[in-house]
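## retry 2 of 3
previous attempt timed out at serialization; input unchanged, resubmitting
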Amino acid sequence: MLICEKWRSHRKMIAPTFHINILKSFMGVFNENSKSVVKKLRSEVGKTFDVHDYMSCVTVDILLETAMGITKTTQDAASFDYAMAVMK
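## retry succeeded, writing output
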């Protein structure tokens, strides 16, 4: 299978997931997780820090809740290792 054919096949399978109505149904999840990460980022004002860790955690939280229905707060320090393992 050519790379472009493989991509097209994969794109066709996942396209319904990104339909506007599906995304709208997750607005609450997006909003709550966004508020949480903003609250955490406020503690970093005036400091130099790596935003990657924060964004990785919020991304994992959103994916777990929207794709698997699991509400896990990886933005807490205790769950950070879990988030990093999932990202690998």
